[in-house]
Amino acid sequence: MANEIAQKFRTDLDDMHRALILVPAVLADVPWREGGWTRKQIVGHLLDSATNNRQRFVRAATEGKYEGPKYAQDAWLAAHGYASQSWETLLGWWEAEHEILMAIVDLIPEERLESSCRVGDDAPVTLGYLIEDYARHQRWHLKQLTASAPTI
Q1: Angle at which helices 39-63 and 127-145 pack, to 10 degrees?
Q2: What stretch of H or E contains 142?
Q3: Over the stretch 45-72, which tens digit does the pLDDT of each residue have?
Q4: Taking Cα atoms as reference points, which of 131, 147, 113 lies closest to residue 37?
């Protein structure tokens, strides 16, 4: 049975998915604010975050700790070419990546939630904190994705 963190993680990501699919495709190429990323780029960033955090979650759960790099957000966005993908493709990728993450988090043994995780030169945190922070990060970007289109 999934622990409390896993249940909350699943609920948070399911809620985010329901909100994300309501973002109109006509806004996909529109920056969320003047000078900001487009909604496609934000979803791409969330995909990159999912990829990086999958490594962190699995390594901490299986090895009892994680130490690894941060990542260069803008370089990753450019390397993946998210801006040239269709909105529907990006949303499908988001859903698939997060189904994988939810399945991983569901299977993390309770005692491994205390595993030490150090990302870049940040202070170490527990795996449980990293999982909860990941969901907070998703919710923060959801506010950008659902913001009214600016008048440019």
Answers
A1: 170
A2: helix 127-145
A3: 999 999 999 999 999 999 999 999 999 9
A4: 147
Burial bucket for residue 115 (CB in 10 Å: 0-12, 13-18, 19+) = buried
User: Does pLDDT of 1 surpass 50?
Assistant: no
Give the separation between CA 128 and CA 110, rounded to whole angstroms. 9
CB 69 within 8 A of CB 46: no
Query: What would the two tokens of residue 72 be?
Result: 């260069």
pTM for the whole thing? 0.92
**What is the second-level CATH architecture of the domain 4-145?**
Up-down Bundle (1.20)
Angle subtended at Cα 87 by Cα 103 and Cα 71, rounded to the nearest 5 degrees: 60
What count of other Cβ atoms lies within 10 Å of the Cβ of residue 26?
9
Considering all CA atoms of the chain, what is the largest pairwise distance in Å, rounded to the nearest integer? 51
Q: What percent of the chain has pLDDT over 90?
A: 91
State which H helix or E strand residue 141 sits in. Answer: helix 127-145
CA pair distance 134, 4, nearest whole angstrom: 15
Give the domain ranges of the chain.
4-145
CB 55 within 8 A of CB 71: no
